[in-house]
């Protein structure tokens, strides 16, 4: 099972950024041999459960998959 993330190299091949912010990756967790541009136009980042042992993979951006997104949290309030 694969999930989309916000990572892409669609603007500059081989330069991976977070699409929402335009910031380059500070940390990567690519599966060995990835990103590989297999069959060309693999410009979107997936988080791959199973075959890639929870590591990253580049894939075609138009494939139907679920997605993982970042969400701001509110500060934890301790009561008592």
- Following the backbone from N to C, one meets helices and strands in this order, namely EEEEE
| Low-confidence residue ranges | none
> What would you give as the CATH superfamily?
Mannose-Binding Protein A, subunit A
Number of strands: 5
Tell me the fraction of residues in β-strands, as a range.
25-35%
The average pLDDT value, as a whole number, equals 87
Protein architecture, described:
This protein is mainly β and 80 residues long. It has a single domain, classed as Roll (Mannose-Binding Protein A, Chain A), CATH 3.10.100. Helices cover 0% and strands 25% of the residues. The protein has strands at 2-8, 17-18, 44-48, 56-59, 66-67. The radius of gyration is 15 Å and the shape is globular.
List the helices and strands and how they pair.
Layout: E1 2-8, E2 17-18, E3 44-48, E4 56-59, E5 66-67
Parallel strand pairs: 1-5
Antiparallel strand pairs: 1-2, 1-3, 3-4
Summarize the structure.
By secondary structure, the protein is mainly β.
What attributes characterize this protein structure?
80 residues; mainly beta; Mannose-Binding Protein A, Chain A; globular
């Amino acid at each position: 099972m694969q999930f989309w993330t916000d990572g892409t190299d669609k603007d500059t091949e081989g330069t991976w950024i977070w699409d929402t912010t335009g910031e380059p990756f500070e940390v990567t967790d690519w599966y060995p041999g990835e990103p590989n541009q297999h069959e060309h136009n693999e410009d979107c980042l997936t988080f791959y459960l199973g075959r890639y042992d929870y590591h990253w993979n580049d894939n075609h951006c138009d494939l139907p998959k679920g997605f993982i997104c970042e969400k701001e949290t509110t500060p934890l309030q301790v009561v008592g």
